[in-house]
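WARN retry 2 of 3 for item q-0093 after timeout on previous attempt; input resubmitted unchanged.
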Amino acid sequence: MMGIDFEFLRDTFLRLLEAVPTTLGLVSSALLLGGIWACVLVAMRLSHRAVPHYFARIYIFLFRGTPLLIQLFLLYYGVGQFQAIRDSMLWFVLREPYACAVISFALCTAAYTAEILRGAILSIPQGQIEAGIACGMSRFTLLRRIIAPVALRYALPAYSTEAVMITKATALASLVTVWEVTGVAQQIIQSTYRTLEVFCCAALIYLIINFLIFRALGLAEYLLSGHLRDPGLPRGAVRREGV
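OK item q-0093 returned
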C-alpha cells in the first residue's frame, strides 16, 4: 500500500497558492462588473417601457439558458473572426484571454444577479415603502434608506450561492490559457501524472476561498439585518401598527 507523500502535497499546495491571486482577480472583477451591469438590467427589467423591458428579458433568458463555457468560447474564439472587431479598439481587450474570461463571467453572472435583485425588490413589503413616503422621503432617500438595504438583505442568501458558483466557474478560464488554480493543477498533472493528490489540493483551495466568501456575505447579512428593524425611518419616528 502506497503511503502519502506529504512533501509532494506541500509543494503542490504552495504552487497552487501562487495561482490564487489570478483566481481571486477573476472572481472579484467578474462580480464587480457583473453587479454593476445587473443593476442596469434590473432597472430595465422593472421599467414600464417596452424596449428596455424586453431587452432585459431576452438578455437574461439567453445568458441563463446557455452554458457559460459556450459563452466563453464564443467571445474568445468567435468574436476574433470578424475583421471589424480586429480593426477596432475593442481588439486590444478581446485578444487577451484574461479580459475575455472576466467579460464572459461578468456577462453571465449579471443575468443571474439581476433576477436575484429583482426578486428581492419585489419582496419588499409595500407598507415599508408607504411609511417612507408618508415621512416625506424623496425617491433617492427612499431608495437609499429603505429599498436598497432591504433588497440587499433579501438578496444576500441567494447572491452568496451565485458568488460561489462563479468562483467555481473560474476553472473554465484554463481552457483559454488563463492559468488560475485549475489551470496550474492541470500543468502539474501533465508533468507528474498524480491526478488525485493535485486535484485534492486544488479542491481544498476552492473550499477555503468559498468559505471566506460565505463568511463575508454572512457578516454583511448580519450587519444589514439590524437596519431592517426600522429601515429608513427617521430617528425618533414612531412606527405605526401594521406598517
